[in-house]
């Protein structure tokens, strides 16, 4: 028996969700919903699922067992909570939400309902990321010293003008960091461990009619004693593939999008030969560096499969659960606070920072 999925939010990302679901064994797209009825109708026509113009009606459909949410970032909480209360498992596009309070509401409601919750970070499921994590778990880097995430992307003004929610604190939750670089922030924390302090600067330099940053830079201190950096922008023409750099006393590795471009360890292993051979056959495309639609759906498919595995095993612990999804939001909020105040910010945050540059307390809380 296949497990039925329902998609909430039928914009660009819904097509990637639909393709991913189609590629997962034991999954099927049963329904979709959007507050704009025509958007749901179009997705249903493309995929053969049932379109709903009322969320409660879709959540009452017994064919829908898992709900994938792809609404604007600051509108994730309401459908996630409704889905959990209806007994549906919940998958939420990044970021989990745009404030810690809203993240915690989702996490708590899913826990109370006993349903699986996963925040979508498909980069964790790329082969290169898996290899880095394996090397990390095996201690091959020695003493970790430096970890960097670099996302130098480009978005034309037309990208922000294409939707009223884009580039707003209220619904986008931020700019280059919260919307684009959050995938790399998640990877950096997954590999390096928790950050304990951040200093930062940010600005809006190349775009108009937006309220959020299009350039940001942060320096980090990690709990393990290592230091690091995050650079993020949507104002760098023509846009370049994102990098993750992990360095230690006994090894270093650098990824460019899905490819490993550097893999150097003091203690060689037989598996290194295969990795070096694969490096000569690099295959990453644009990776969304200049076009948000220029991404693959294979990472989503692997993550959806991971969620299905958790459901079938009767656990509530997929690889990227709610608390894991919350971590990157917390760090980005700390970066925003550090940039705004010009002072170091300690982690973990005790509460959502009160930022003058954004409206805190989004409707629904």
Protein model, in words:
An eight-stranded mixed beta sheet has the order 13-12-11-7-10-9-8-14. The radius of gyration is 20 Å and the shape is globular. The protein folds into two domains: 3-123 and 297-321, NAD(P)-binding Rossmann-like Domain (Rossmann fold), CATH 3.40.50.720; 124-290 and 328-346, Dihydrodipicolinate Reductase, domain 2, CATH 3.30.360.10. The chain is an alpha/beta fold and 365 residues long. 36% of the residues lie in helices and 22% in strands. It has helices spanning 12-23, 37-47, 55-59, 77-85, 100-113, 127-137, 157-161, 176-192, 270-279, 298-313, 322-341; strands at 3-8, 27-33, 50-52, 66-69, 89-92, 117-119, 144-152, 195-203, 215-222, 227-233, 243-248, 251-256, 259-265, 345-346. Helix 4 runs parallel beside helix 5 (100-113) and helix 8 crosses helix 11. Helix 4 links the parallel strand 4 and strand 5. The model is unreliable at 359-365 (pLDDT under 50).
The count of strands amounts to 14
The spatial strand order of the largest sheet comes to: 13-12-11-7-10-9-8-14
Series of secondary-structure elements, N-terminal to C-terminal: EHEHEHEHEHEHEHHEEEEEEHHHE
Q: What does the largest sheet look like?
A: 8 strands, mixed
Spell out the CATH superfamily of the largest domain: Dihydrodipicolinate Reductase, domain 2
CATH architecture of the largest domain: 2-Layer Sandwich
Estimated radius of gyration: 20 Å
Output the structural class: alpha/beta
Total domain count: 2
Counted by DSSP, the helix tally is 11
Helical amount: 25-40%
How far apart lie the N and C ends?
Answer: 38 Å
Annotated CATH topology of the largest domain:
Dihydrodipicolinate Reductase, domain 2
- The overall pLDDT average reads 94
CATH class of the largest domain: Alpha Beta
Percent of sequence in beta strands: 15-25%
Characterize the overall form.
globular
Question: Low-confidence parts lasting 5 or more residues at pLDDT below 50?
Answer: 359-365
């Amino acid at each position: 028996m296949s497990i039925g999925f329902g998609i909430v939010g039928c914009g660009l990302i819904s097509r990637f969700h639909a393709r991913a679901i189609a590629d997962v064994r034991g999954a099927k797209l049963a329904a979709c919903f959007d507050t704009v009825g025509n958007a749901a109708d179009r997705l249903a026509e493309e995929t053969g699922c049932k379109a709903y113009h009322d969320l409660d009606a879709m959540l009452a459909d017994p064919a829908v067992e898992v709900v994938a949410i792809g609404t604007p970032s600051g509108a994730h909480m309401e459908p996630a909570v409704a889905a959990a209360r209806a007994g549906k498992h919940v998958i939420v596009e990044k970021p989990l939400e745009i404030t810690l309070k809203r993240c915690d509401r989702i996490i708590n409601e899913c826990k109370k309902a006993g349903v699986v919750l996963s925040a979508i970070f498909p980069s964790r499921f790329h082969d290169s990321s898996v290899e880095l994590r394996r090397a990390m778990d095996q201690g091959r880097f020695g003493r970790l010293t430096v970890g960097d995430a670099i996302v130098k992307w480009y978005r034309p003004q037309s990208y922000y003008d294409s939707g009223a929610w884009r580039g707003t604190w209220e619904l986008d939750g931020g700019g280059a960091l919260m919307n684009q670089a959050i995938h790399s922030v998640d990877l950096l924390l997954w590999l390096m461990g928790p950050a304990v302090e951040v200093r930062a600067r940010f600005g809006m330099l190349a775009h108009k009619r937006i309220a959020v940053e299009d350039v940001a830079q942060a320096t980090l201190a990690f709990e393990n004693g290592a230091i690091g950096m995050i650079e993020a922008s949507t104002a760098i023409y023509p846009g370049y593939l994102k990098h993750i750099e992990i360095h230690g006393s006994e090894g270093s590795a650098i990824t460019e999008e899905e490819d490993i471009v550097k893999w150097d360890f003091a203690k060689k292993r037989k598996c290194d030969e295969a990795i070096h051979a694969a490096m000569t056959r690099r295959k990453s495309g644009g990776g969304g560096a200049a076009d948000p639609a220029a991404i693959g759906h294979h990472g989503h498919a692997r993550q959806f499969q991971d969620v299905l595995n958790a459901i079938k095993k009767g656990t509530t612990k997929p690889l990227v659960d709610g608390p894991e999804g919350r971590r990157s939001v917390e760090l980005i909020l700390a970066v925003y606070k550090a940039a705004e105040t010009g002072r170091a910010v300690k982690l973990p945050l005790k509460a959502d920072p009160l930022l003058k540059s954004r409206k805190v307390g989004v409707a629904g809380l």
